Amino acid sequence: MHRFRSDLQASGIAGVLDITFEIRPPATQEPRLTGSGVVVVNPPYTLRTEMEAIMPALASLLGTADCPGGRTEWLVPEAG
Predict the structure, then answer these.
(1) Partners of residue 66 on adjacent β-strands
(2) Sheet holding 16-22, edge to edge
(3) Which residue ranges of the chain lie beneath pLDDT 70?
(4) What is the dihedral of CA 57, 62, 66, 71, to 10 degrees?
């Protein structure tokens, strides 16, 4: 995933938003799905704020007690 994100940052495409949501800490013993993510190019201007508002509620409903929750990050800021 690190290379994917680095390649997007180097692409020259503006407005690349990375949204990640984890429902449990990374597995230490057995491989298992711990979360999900999506990269949105040119997202609607309210998407980041809306995702940051809803992720705590999703974490409390779907996550374990030590759930990392979610985050949003501009890989490449919007132009302008």
Answers:
(1) none
(2) 35-41, 16-22, 69-76
(3) 28
(4) -60
